Structure formats: C-alpha cells, structure tokens
Amino acid sequence: MSDYDAIVVGTGAGGGISACVLAESGFSVLLVERGELLSYGDVGRDHLRNQRLSVYGHNAGPGPGNPRTTRNSQGELLTFMPWQGGYHANAACVGSGTRVYGAQAWRFVPEDFRMASIYGVPQGSSLADWPIEYLDLEPYYTQAEWEVGVCGDEYANAHGASRSKGYPMPPMRQTVQYSTLKSGADKLGWNTAPVPLLINSKEYGGRAACAECQHCVGFACPVDAKNGSANTVIPRALATGKCELRCATLAKRLVCDENGQVIGVELATETNGEITTQVVYGRKIIVSCGAIESARLLLNSRSARNPAGVGNHHDLVGRNLQGHYYPGAMGVMPYDVYDGIGPGVVISTSRFNHGNKGIIGGGMIANEFIMTPITFWHRALPPHIPRWGQANKDWMRENYRRTIHITGPVQEIPSRDARVTVNPNVCDKYGVPVAHLSGSTHEETVRTSAFMWERCVEWLKASGAVTVWGEAPSGAWLSGGQHQAGTCRMGNSPSQSVTDRWGRVHDQANLYILDSSLHVTNGGYNPVLTIMALAFRGAEKVVSELNGH
Amino acid sequence: MLETGEILQLQALADTVIPADNWPGAVEAGVCSFILNLLEHEENWRVSAYRNGLLALDRLAHSVNSSPFHTLTLQQKTQLLEMVETRSAEAQRAGVDLDWLRVVFRHCAEGYYADSGNGGNIDNKSWEMVGFKVTI
Fold it and tell me: Taking CB atoms and an 8 Å limit, are B18 and A393 in contact across chains?
C-alpha cells in the first residue's frame, strides 16, 4: 500500500516542477528536501559565504556534515567540505540552485542533441546523441519560459531553432557594457543577443519586477523577482493541498520489493540535532537531486536484485559526469563600464556554439554578472599586479569600474571515467556513504575551451580594451559544480544508458530521474531551462501512467 | 589567540599590505578585527602560523633594520615584504614563510573589501573607494 501517489526527492529545477505537475493533476505528493526553507534574510549577503565566492561556507547549503571525497594524482584520499572547490557543490535548500542562481535561461540548440552524429565520437570519449531532439523538447521549453518566467528577445535568441511562442517578458535593460560590447561585436561581424533570464524584467506571476540590484548571482533576490522553484512551482504545488514538503530530510536509499522494483524511499530527518528514519512508499518515485546526489542515491540503494545499486546493471550510474569549462578573459576599458545596473550579464553571442572549423562544439559567451569587490579581487586581478601594497590598492580603485569580464560555458566532451561512486568508508551526518568523485573531462573539452578563450580575448580587444588578461585553459580536470550533469544519461538502449527517453530507469517500472543527470551532453549553455523542460515533459508522462495510460 | 605584542605586529603588517592614502588603510578599515575574528572562529588552526610568521618577520626587521617590525616606516616594511616575496637570503634566514604571507594578503583583502558583516570594511569605505554602490 503506498503512502503517496508520488515521492519526489529534491526541490531544485527538476523536483519542484515534477511536484507541481503531479499535485495539480490531483495526485498526492511527498516532496523531500535535505536542506531548509530559506528566507531572503536567511540567505543574506555575506560576501565570503555565497554560491559565487564560498571561502568559508555557503549561504544556501550544503552545510558541514556533508563531505565528499576524491583522490589526488598521488592516490591520496582527499575530503572536501561543500564550500571547497573539489566538492562540485550545488545549493541544498528549498529550490536548490534556483534559489541563488544567476538564472540564465538558455534553450539548447538542435545540434546540442546530436553531437555524436555531427562530430563523430572522439577516441576515448563517451560522446553520444540524445534519444530525443530539440523539437521533442520545444513545447516544454516554452512551458518553462511561461510558467516559471523568462525575459528575453525571442528573435535574437532563436539561433535558427524554431520557437512556438515568444518570451513572456522583454529582455533586461541595456547597460554601458551592452553598448560597449555590441560595438565590438559589430566590428567583428558577430551577432549578439540579450541574455535570457529567469528574472522578471516587468511584474510577472504576481511578483515584482527586478530592482536591478548588485547581488544577483550567488544570492537571493531582495524583491523576489528571480524565478526559481521556491517562489513559482513549489507554492503552486503546495496550494493544491495535495503536496507535502518535508525539509531537512535526506533520502538515504531507495527501497525495493522482492523483485528489485523500487517502491519507496528510506528517509532520515534531522530535528534539533536528532535523526529519525522512516520508510515511505509511493506509486511513483522521482529522483531529482542533481547529477552527483542522484547518482549517489541510486548507488547507495543496493539489494539482492540490485547488487551494484538501482539501475546499475551495466555499470553506467554515476559515469559521464560533466559540467562546463568556463574559459574567460578580462579587459580594462579606457572609460567606466560599470553602471551598477544588475544583474549585469546582458549581452551574449552564440556565434561559436557550433560550426567552428576543426573544433568539436563550442559555447555561448557573455559578459559577467556584477562582481562584489572581494570577488573581483579574488578573480579579476591581472597577473602582473601585486596582491598587496599601494599598487594593488591603486589598481582596485582605478579599474573596478573599468573592467569587463567575458566568459561562458563550453560544451564538454564527456568521458566515461569522469564519475561518481560512493565511498563506503566516509559517511555524512546521517551515516550514509558519501559521493566519491574521480576522473576528468576529455581532452577535446580543453581544446574547445582554448578556442573559446581566444574568442573572449578577441571580443574584448575589438570592444576597445586597453589591456586584456586571463589564462587560456590547459589540462583536463573534473568539471561539475552547479552545472553538473550526465550521470544517469537517457537513451534508447538499456546497455548504453540508465533511463529511457522520458527519464524512467530502464529496468524499473516506477522510478524516474528528472534532473540534469539525464543530459547525454550538456550543451554550450547554462543548463537549467533544459532541466526544467525535461521535468515538465517527464512529469507529464508520470501523470499519464498514474492515470492508467 | 594572539597577544597584545603580536597584535601590534599584525597591525603594522596589515597597514603595509593595504596602506592608508586618501582612503583608509587596513587597520582603520577594521582588517585586524576581521582577521582576529577569523582566527578565533573559522581558522583557529592558523593561529600558530600567524604567531610564527609575525615572529619571523620581526627577526627579519631586527636583522635588516635593527628595530622591531612595528616601529619601521612604511617604506622599510614594504622593502622587507619584497625581500620575502623574492625569497632573499635574509628573509630565508629569518624563516618568513611566503605561503603564510600570501594568506595574509588574502585575509587583508577579505577584511578590506568584503561586507562589513564580516567585521572589516568599516562604513563600507572600500566600496565607496572602488565605486560599488548598493542600491537596494
């Protein structure tokens, strides 16, 4: 007997939408989140503890007690706290990353779903096509844009791909950096587009328009104009009365019947430092914990019928972990290019996402969000400027307002060896084995990144930069973080993929994964709108199954 | 935790890392309070590195300038830090750890440029200096 029609684990971009679609279809839903429901004040504005610069901690989780491990090149075991670089963190709170993200709302382009067909499979890579095409997702991209709320320019952002509908809101206001970089792009003959954002450029969804503050990416919105799961689809789910939200609760493992079919979830809830466990049963189970934690949950769910973990008969769960390389360059302009109008990211080019001779894929590049002064000190200083003394202070004073940073996500060429396993010897505060990360991206990712870095430099110089700096990417490493993806890739063949084209785990009747784990490749764009589109599409399928179709 | 004499040295060091000009130096901006707070609550394990580092810097000051570090002029203190950075023989003999000094540079910047909630950047003066204005 099931306690709920559906149990959704994780409240981020995929989980929130899944819960909303199910609850609004009349089904009872338990929505589980390991973090807390955070107010604007809870997230705060700590410049040293945020999702953009986390020197001493995070403002949106995970907190202490949730380590991960890896091994260095000498084979020594390293343990990372969530705010350390090797952790590859995603926020842990209601809304997950969408609570504090920069909210770039890109659709992948048609080529992104056919990478292997277009470019071939580089030796040693696990590059593959998606089992679906852009047109399969197009209606759900539109649904995400309208139901969660995206601002943008439908004509500038089309990139040759068809759209069934425009954006519900116009793009954000143009800034000094917009006009500066537009003139540079014009000189180069590059097309540009305003950056589409999950932000209210005007009042929308009963919430205010963006106040153009200086603390967007990495922080919560002071006027609630940033659209994430926590202020859109989760309130809708709760308003039905059919959805129960349970915070501070970790899904320890998936519970199976005697045939190895998942029928429930063992939960551990922390209340005033006390941990209690409970098994809940659902007709459908949806895992939406992000690429690292979803893989960890499946791998931690071993049983007689699933000895290597659920869905892992072919040793695929946790493999192909990918994120985005972010090549970037900085340039000092001869005049102030800072006008304080947030979020700051405003102009992009998708000219180099594909069609680059001799290069596999590519990526979108755009100017950067407003940086806090200490983030600027950490990330933007030229190599020849000392890190102390009068010269450092002078440079900060003279150039904070004159510097433009161009960067963007490069489409990764996945590697089977870049993976999540579980470390049986290191447990989190609930006593559950933690994620262990290993491997690195494919060398073609590095080559594409170096190519894109040159484009960043080229754009800055054409836009009038007096000096340009930043390092060209070199070396292959593991790339996860907030754009983590790929660990339960979808596909048509059970021996080559973890789920089917809807997100249902191949050998499971009632277990779905609806998050970035499904991404076969991760596009040359921020992936959140694709996660949302896949969730709308997958949840619709779950509803149809619950209705007996 | 650091003692009074060590705090004097820390102040002298911090004001060399971020000197006063038309805008506050590190001490006036609250950088030392930031660092002491950090050492007490977040990075207690660095206290001995600070203690040893400040002692070594003082040894270097005595060996080069025959005076305690905190009594030197900004120019003299700057020269000593440059000696550490270039790994000069005197700095090596005095045992000043460059890795520690680089941490001090970072800590000073964090105290100077981060939000005042962290105990530094009094009155947001550094934000005013660079032109970072918070509108809401």
Answer: yes
Does B136 reside within a domain? no
Could you read off the pLDDT of A428-467 as tens digits, one per residue? 999 999 999 999 999 999 999 999 999 999 999 999 999 9
Contact list, A211 vs chain B (CB under 8 Å): 135-136
**Total structural domains in chain B?**
1
- CATH code, domain carrying A243: 3.50.50.60
Q: Touching check for B102 and chain A: CB below 8 Å?
A: yes
Domain count for chain A, please give it. 1
The pTM of the full predicted model, rounded to 2 decimals, is: 0.98
Q: Which two tokens stand for residue A91?
A: 């926020």
Determine the Cα angle at A425 with ends A286 and A309, to 5°.
30
Strands A365-367 and A77-80: unpaired
User: Has residue B135 been placed in a domain?
Assistant: no
Residue B42 touches partner A, C-beta closer than 8 Å: yes
Q: Which domain holds residue A434?
A: 4-546
> Is ipTM strictly over 0.90?
yes
Instruction: Measure in Å the smallest separation between the Cα of A55 and chain B Cα atoms.
Output: 10
Q: How many helices (H) and strands (E) does chain B have?
A: 7, 0
Q: Answer yes or no: are the C-beta atoms of B114 and A374 closer than 8 Å.
A: yes
Q: Are A58 and A31 in contact (CB under 8 A)?
A: no
